[in-house]
Amino acid sequence: MKDFFLKFLTNYWFWSAFTGWAVSQIAKLFTGVFKERRFTLRAMIFGSGGMPSAHTASAVALTVALVVTHGTGSPLPVVTGMLAIVIMTDAMAVRLEAGRHARFLNRMVDEGREPAPEDGKRFQTLLGHSFAQVAVGFAIGVASALLLSLIPWPSV
Asked: How far is CA 79 from the centre of its chain?
């Protein structure tokens, strides 16, 4: 069991992805406070949308970490790279459009043209990301993996 925890705590690939996610979520604290004029810890940790994209940062960090350790000839960074592309595309297209739909539906409910949802909650509008938010998440992911690659990890 001790070996399991030691391997986990010294896992460069995990820490690269986690650092990308954590840096992005912490950055959202500042960008969210400035934009929304409010702070909620729940939204910072579990929320989606906003500047920068934490999903992109973690997926890109994992991909770059795998390129650093396995090279471009390995299937591992190819798989994670393809998943990162899916994540970025989803964030900028599907989820961003769903957020636009939610804003429209909320406005229709506010104007009395549609009944409120049965649970009384408004539709969540901050779901996706703009290109800039994904680009900053991408940069954070690359930087996280490259900076952590400078540490002499025992499992690498």
From this structure: 18
| Residue range 12-64, pLDDT digits in tens | 999 999 999 999 988 887 776 666 666 666 555 656 667 889 999 999 999 99
Cα first-last separation, the chain = 20
Structure tokens at 130: 């703009």
Distance CA 50, CA 44 (A): 10
How does DSSP assign 20-84, residue by residue?
HHHHHHHHHHHHHHHHHS---HHHHHH--SSSS-HHHHHHHHHHHHHHHHH-TTSHHHHHHHHHH
Domain ranges of the chain: 2-148
